[in-house]
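Here's what a typical entry looks like (DM10 domain-containing protein):
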Amino acid sequence: MASAFPKLPGFVPTQEIDKPNFRKVSSTKQEQNREVHHLPNKEYAVPRKQPIQIPPQSGMFNPDYMSTTHAMHLPKNANNDSEELYQPSWVKMDRHVLRFSGYFKEAVVESALENYRIRKITVFYYLEDHSLSITEPKQENSGVPQGAFLKRQKVLRADDSKTFILPEDFRINQDIIIFGKTIRLFDCDQYTREFYELQGIPQEPSFVPQSDSFETKTMTKFVPQKDTVMKDYLEHKLGGGKVTSQKQFLENDRKVLKFYVFSDIEYILHYYLADDTIEIKEINSANSGRVPFPMMLRRQKLPRKFSLNQPGQTYAEDFIRPQDIQFGQPLIIYNRKFLINGCDQFTRQYYFEKFNVDFPLGGQEEYVQQERSNIIIPPHNGIGDEQDSLGYIYRLQPKPPKKDFFKWVDNQVNLRFLAMFNTTKPEDKDRVFVITFFLNDDSLLVYEPTVRNSGIPDGKFLEKRKYKNVNNNNEFFTPGDLIVGNEVQINGWRFQLLDCDEFTKKWYSENFK
């Protein structure tokens, strides 16, 4: 009998309510599934329900409106049992996934390292439509493509029953065949165990699969053993290295024991307490007839016994310590005898406090060359820095002058003054200047602001550098020379200080009381 209803989804009274779609199946798909027994999806009791997903609101243009779902607008007093009665299976089993861990053996040919490879995979079984997917975790330098091993799809059983794989086919410590691959399952997650316990078929305990040659030889990271003795030897050979104890360095830094020794001539022996190193210096004097050689022995750790061992085989307990140096006793240094004749005052006090030993004073001091005072310093010509120019007078190869680093860091402030020319010239008496004094290096900078239609170029009037105060014995300018109301002469120009900024007033009130 012909029906008056249109043959459209939702208008046919006899259609199935839980049918998800009405798409046509292609002829190729029908040919593949012609002999497959299509059974309705079986529903299972699940351990817990999935929470309601709230859609993300990042894509909404208007923040007053929210993207919602049907589950968010259910009535408060709705009966969940009646609702689940009419829900299709794909809604009830949505986002319920069973996860198994398994492995299979794969033969490896023409390899001297291994005969087979154990490939570990993860099997995901979706209760929504009884499909499954397989992924393989990626391994570094494995040589095989890894990642997605099998896309999500339904898989037929290998027993020619023309039925798809169901959750009952997955058992721990048993094999399952998927597209010709025999996979042994060895673990599953907690939700999967709860699911099978609810069905009355609990899974067996998990076990650790065996390892292959690739995993034991290639994947195991080699942890090299550090040869600290060899490393310390090479660093000290290159002139570096560090002390064994950082506490020893911090407590004894710049503390040096000084001994006067004699071998064939007089020497000075320095023992550095910071790192237990020793150096021996010759005592050179003028017109001694000897070649002035500065060092008899460069700074190094001195072994008690001289022997040609392998590099790094001399241990710390074999080095000479302060208690090994005694008055009147010879000290053997590389098979050469040095007689201890005395020490300085600091070394004597150290031995008395540390070892309760009265070490006598004495010995020949180093020759200090008297400084010649016949150097005539010419007056500065005003070009460049005077301290920089003095370097060419004291040294043949000048060194740049050293700046006071702490003063540079602690005084990053500037004092600014307003000044005018102290002159009677009509073209200069109205000119205004800004004098800046930099406390970090005691330098001055004179700047002339812009005055429209004055005919005088504005900008920097005097370069930033240190200037001498002719009214104060040609000493460099200090903040005490710059007092508001006074007259100062900078590089031949007379300025009358009129005012200063608020910071300068505050600074003078705190530092000049």
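The first helix runs from residue 27 to 32.

More examples are in the samples folder.
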